[in-house]
Amino acid sequence: MIQKLDLNGTWKVHWVDGMRGGRYFATEENYDEMRFLSAQVPGEIHLDAWKAGWIKDPYVETNALAARWIEQGLWCYRHDFDVPEDASSSKHVWLNFEGLDYFATILLNRVVVGSHENSFYPCRLDVTGKLRPGKNQLVVHLEGGCIGTSDKPSIQCGDQERLTKRLWLRKPQCQFSWDWSTRFVNVGIFKSVTLEWSTDPVRMDQLVALATLDPDLQQGQVKVRWFAEGLGLDEVAGILKIEIPETGKSVQTEVKIKPGLHPLEAVIEVANPQLWWPVGHGKPNRYQVNVTLEINGAKIAEKETQIGFRHVVINQESHPEKGRFFIIEINGKKIFCKGGNFVPADMIFMRADRPRYETLIDRALEANFNLLRIWGGGLYEADEFYDLCDEKGVLVWQEFIFACGEYPVTDDALFGSVKNEAVYNIRRLASHPSLIFWCGNNEMEWGVWNNYDKRAVPDLSLFHITLPQLLKREDGTRYYQPSSPYSPDGQHPNADELGDQHPWSIGMRNTDFREYRKMICRFPNEGGILGPTSLPTLLACLPEGQRFPGSLAWQLHDNSINTWENPSLPDQNQIIRQWLGADYRKMSLEEFTYWAGLVQGEGLREYCENFRRRKYDSAAAIFWMFNDCWPTVRSWTIVDYYLRRTPSFHFVKRAFAPVSVVVVPENDEIKIYGINETFEPIQAQLRSGIFSLEGKYLEDASTEVKLEPNASTLLATLPMSLWTRQNDSMPFAILMQNGQLLARGRTFTLLFKEIRWPAAAVQVEVKNGKAVFQSDTFAWNVCIDLDGEENLADNFFDLFPGIPYVIPWTKTTPPKVLHVGNDLPKLVSRIPAKP
Fold this sequence. Notes:
Layout: E1 3-6, E2 9-16, E3 36-41, H1 45-52, H2 63-66, E4 74-83, H3 85-88, E5 92-97, E6 100-101, E7 104-108, E8 111-116, E9 123-126, E10 134-142, H4 159-164, E11 176-178, E12 181-183, E13 188-189, E14 193-198, E15 202-213, E16 219-230, E17 236-244, E18 249-257, E19 260-271, E20 287-295, E21 298-307, E22 312-315, E23 327-330, E24 333-335, E25 337-342, H5 354-366, E26 371-374, H6 383-392, E27 395-399, H7 412-429, E28 435-439, H8 444-448, H9 460-474, E29 479-481, E30 531-532, H10 535-541, H11 552-557, H12 572-580, H13 589-613, E31 620-623, E32 634-635, H14 649-655, E33 659-666, E34 669-676, E35 682-692, E36 697-707, E37 711-719, E38 729-737, E39 740-746, E40 763-767, E41 770-774, E42 779-782, E43 797-799, E44 805-808
Parallel strand pairs: 25-26, 25-31, 26-27, 27-28, 28-29
Antiparallel strand pairs: 1-14, 2-3, 2-4, 4-10, 5-9, 5-14, 6-13, 7-8, 7-10, 11-12, 15-16, 16-19, 17-18, 17-20, 20-21, 22-23, 23-24, 30-32, 33-34, 34-37, 35-36, 35-38, 38-39, 40-41, 41-44, 42-43
């Protein structure tokens, strides 16, 4: 079997800027240690420099700007190590770097043994005969990528693209700056390094276990493909064994291992398997698969993985009104997809570990998600991420890492690197039942749609021919589409009535989110509204003396769309003026967090509720975006970098609840929809009507209703003619079952500043482990927390007039009401009068 020497730990690293220092220092026998910094492997240079005091915490204040010199330097890693005698004399020896970022040249004992230019797959080098007995010297020259692309042509005309030439670099694209992320170019040996050796005739590589399930759900099949490298000139006979312990099933087959890398294949059948279900629809059952290879009666290698049996259909049948459906069906059941876009969990990518992933996924589950879209400008995520999604039943939409550009894959070297990257990651992720989509890129089909007849697109064949063919060869079990958004039938990529959509007609230039109510998108998976992060996170971004909008630190940590046009796009003052009639520059930071969070939350609520009420004419409500990679004062997220819930978190959590009620004005009616995500009908009591904000129930009726299973049901309608005073009254719905509250809903037609808000006197008391809130008038968006650290049952919630609202509360003291939206009129004086 393969023997390994762990080369991780403390290395030395030398900085070169092209004038000071020299790369050759790193290979000298008697080098000056004062020129070297201690570096951790796996690691990243910013972390080593931070630990040494060379830079300050790059996540806060303006320190990221001061750390930018690191991406402009050349970095020389060195590690001296002793090797066992059998390694130096072995027939086959390899150096294996799991992750190098970026342009890497590797020297062993002062001899160049290889190079690498892709952070998305490992670098394995054959160093047979290049070791020496005893001490050996390993040196790796690295730089973040911007130097190595300096002589490459610029593909796009944006300033960042001209400076970084990101489209030539196979590393996360968002590190070169996006609207929600600062420019922070990683550099380092960011994954494990090992020396490996063997006297065996075979080396085993990636294991792929493809689980499929017949449409009748009665018969499962696991096709195992274990990639073997024959190390000699002759074919070798072996026995491949597969076992699924939970089933008692096993199989073995004779295999022939040829020279070079190729798959060994075998199939095992499983009758009546327990199924893998997404969260909310059943258990995410999984099975362990054990695989071994024997040659001449000796076990050469063994490996294990986990699989799940589920039958997936992407239903794109004709819609009876227009276009096509786009519905995910798992195990014969339609699944409405609820979730957000997942971006890298840290701007220093290797810092994201299993506890961080688990907390993020748990936050997603807390917000009632069942899907995360891995956006194409980030990462093929770590194995731990997909393992957790498998375990917890979270569906994954995975994109190849291409976003918002035209990649120069007509260059043979880049094209070859991209193919290697794709093959490696398809094989790596193929066993995960949570992964149900592969998508070629983010927004690139949309970006060039109007220019197809004007010029050639250099990467079009990559997404329409190369990647789908590689997927067919390496996996063949999953849906693929070339881009997101994408429409079949030759239609515009972002057409509403078929395919998937990025509904950005609202959220940037137009921030009137009432218009979400008109959207009929079949599968919306990127759209959103900007808002603040939690108050502690916002404060962490800003040093003393810069804790005000417009300071340098504010601008660095703010979303950059504020600067794209003049006047700006949805500058926070624009959206606050529009909805609240106030000036955020005259608010305290706490007030900004509350009021801007309220506006974002109401916008995301409209987004989620609109598409859920249209179930399954619309089959998703996936917004931009779920998480942040660094601290911001304003972002699209509901969970910020420090894993705190932003003010908009609970709006989404309620809108995604398995059972909910939506009140919406449409044409000449007020419609009330009941959404039931379960597979069983629900009998409930509906109370609905119109109340005045002062507290009088103007229209009030109760009726027994039935919520159909896995459906949106129109429960009641009211004529709009009954709602005569839209500035001081509100339609409502309350859904109860056996005296227990299931869901509540309400709606409005006016901008918030146009509504006559009465004063609200909120009363709170603690009874039997519960906090009971009550108000004689309607109390809008009662806030009891802006820190986002506690797992509260609810926050930013309404109080209907005279009706108690109860949440679990284990403390003896009642929660403090920090803000109530009814105080809006007090803000009006904070907007300057027009001259």
